[in-house]
Amino acid sequence: GGRHWKRESGGKMTGSLEVEMTSYVLLALLSGPPFQTFNMGYCATIVRWLAQQQNAYGGFASTQDTVVALQALAKYSAATYSPASTVAVTVTAPSGQKTSFTINQSNRLLVQESSLQTVPADYKVRAEGQGCVLVQFTVRYNIPPPPDSSSFSISAKTVGNCDTPMPSVNLSVSVSYNGKRMETNMVILDIKLLSGFRLDEESLSLSSDTPELNKGAVKRVDKKDGSVIIYLDGLRKGDRKTYSLVLLRDTVVQNLKPAVMKVYDYYETSDVANADYTSP
């Protein structure tokens, strides 16, 4: 599986900090004077583990660990670069059909891909030649939100408003933290919008059951691919924060499905809670 570094209390799940720590170790080994024990073979075991954590889009768990990991992988790529390298990769499907990829100097920065015929199935991969290439299999599927078993909790309430020229939904999202730490790092609240709705950008507000409003305050709001991503200035243990939004209906959608929302620690991405909400 490769070599990596983790916290003693990190548990079984791999988080953003494990990727970041391991990437910094690789950067240090490649940037400093060479050691006989920590040679390129040793570095290759670290690269193997990092490659297994990479998602289908080339990133990792968070923005921070992605930046450090890609920097470390780029440095390893430069250290192992060979102008004469050519590698032929053949993927054989259970039916016997073969798909071939050739990686050389003219296309080494090009991502080559092909669709899998059957899933699930056993595929055989054969590589010939000299050089270092990355082969990745990606399977995408939808699943309902899992039961909330993390240190966070999240819930939502909706109220409809149909007496206006543009009908809307008032959405109140409540989040709290009850984990082992006294305070979280920056927290991300990712809210998928209902189909046919958009955010009223002036509607976002915060209420709290504690007088200290600086914790849980909204630092930034992004809109991306039908989602509202809210960056929060951390949460104290036991505090409950409620964020109110207004969703404006642009298009009438029949048989409207629930939308998913989640809350997670920016640096502890394995600590996440999920829930969904529906139009009233």
Structural features, described:
By secondary structure, this protein is α+β, with helices and mostly antiparallel strands. 17% of the residues lie in helices and 32% in strands. The chain contains three helices and 13 strands; from the N terminus they run αααβββββββββββββ. The protein has helices at residues 16-31, 40-53, 63-79, and strands spanning 86-92, 98-103, 124-130, 152-161, 168-177, 187-192, 197-199, 205-208, 218-224, 227-232, 240-249, 259-265, 272-277. The strands form three sheets. Strands 4, 5, 7, 8 and 11 form a five-stranded antiparallel beta sheet that branches. A five-stranded antiparallel beta sheet has the order 9-10-6-12-13, with no helix packed on it. Strands 2-1-3 form a three-stranded antiparallel beta sheet, with no helix packed on it. A hairpin with a 6-residue loop joins strand 4 and strand 5 (168-177). It is globular and about 70 Å long. Mean pLDDT is 86; it is low at 208-213.
Q: What key phrases describe this protein's structure?
A:
five-stranded antiparallel β-sheet; 17% helix; 3 helices; 280 residues; 32% strand; alpha+beta
Helix and strand run: HHHEEEEEEEEEEEEE
CA-based gyration radius: 23 Å
Determine the structural class based on helices, strands and strand pairing: alpha+beta
Q: What is the subunit organization of this protein?
A: single chain
Average pLDDT metric: 86
Would you count the extended β strands for me?
Answer: 13
Shape: globular
Number of helices: 3
Range of strand content: 25-35%
pLDDT < 50 stretches: 208-213
Name the helicity range. Answer: 10-25%
Describe the main β-sheet briefly: 5 strands, antiparallel
Distance between the termini: 48 Å
